[in-house]
Specification:
Length: about 270
């Protein structure tokens, strides 16, 4: 089997595994809808009589909240925790002698999970919340296409950060605290909870040098029309920039990890 077909098969198997437990995700739609509702009422109270905050109208903010949360259902995955468990239990030694790249295998598994979540969580979830909250969808097909491209890049960046966190288990042996911190940092600084434009000026300048805004903020701004014209392509270029940059620490850490690997248990 060629490497290409092997990785495609990994995507398919992870998708089918998720499909077997799809009922669990129906409750996730309800939970995300509750989150969206909570943030909707919070932001409407903050807006008051104001017509715009951070360049977003109240309707755009509602759409931003819904799109950002449903996008999270797509790019979110637990491959860092899976890697940490395999490293702790020594099962990673078996994975390393198999005829595929371990990190690429994890990336493909995350993609299979992401496709499932997008199909059975994000899309139906977006339909459900659109009946509850005043959400405005883009009128142009090109905006949808650019948003999907941006969302795909967001998935890659988030997964790359998870790979880095997972590989660090080789050095820290128990990095549960680090993974929990990473999750909070990503949710807070990606723009999922608060659009980046509403942060203080000094915080915005710092966040410009970090990859987190490329995960939630930029795709949501493209969808809501918060950015337009050349700004969309600048946002996509920034996401692509972080995809390329994050390859460097992943490769360096992976090389170092294999050199200093200690198998626990097994």
């Amino acid at each position: 089997m060629s490497a290409y077909r092997m990785y495609v098969e990994m995507i398919r198997i992870r998708f089918l595994m998720m499909l077997a437990y799809r009922v669990n995700y129906y409750s996730g739609i309800i939970i995300y809808a509750i989150n969206i509702g909570a943030y909707y009422f919070l932001w409407m109270a903050i807006y008051g009589q104001q017509e715009s905050l951070g360049g977003l109208s109240p309707t755009q903010m509602t759409t931003y909240i819904a799109v950002a949360w449903m996008a999270r259902a797509f790019y979110f995955n637990n491959i860092d925790r899976e890697m940490a468990l395999e490293i702790k239990e020594g099962r990673v030694a078996i994975e390393l002698i198999r005829p595929y790249h371990y990190l690429m295998m994890k990336m493909m598994q995350a993609l299979g999970e992401g496709i499932f979540r997008f199909s059975f969580f994000s899309i139906p979830g977006m339909v459900v919340v659109s009946f509850i909250f005043p959400i405005v969808l883009p009128m142009e097909a090109s905006t949808f296409a650019l948003y999907l491209l941006s969302l795909t890049l967001a998935f890659v960046i988030n997964t790359q950060i998870n790979l880095i966190t997972g590989v660090l288990t080789f050095f820290f042996f128990n990095n549960d605290g680090l993974m929990q911190t990473k999750r909070v940092v990503v949710d807070l600084f990606s723009g999922l909870l608060i659009p980046i434009a509403l942060y203080p000026e000094w915080a915005i300048k710092i966040l410009e040098y970090l990859p987190f805004q490329a995960i939630a903020y930029l795709p949501a701004m493209i969808f809501t029309g918060g950015v337009s014209g050349n700004e969309i392509y600048q946002a996509l270029f920034l996401q692509l920039f972080w995809v390329v940059v994050l390859i460097v620490p992943i490769q360096l850490l992976w090389k170092k990890a294999k050199q200093s690997m200690i198998i626990q248990g097994g």
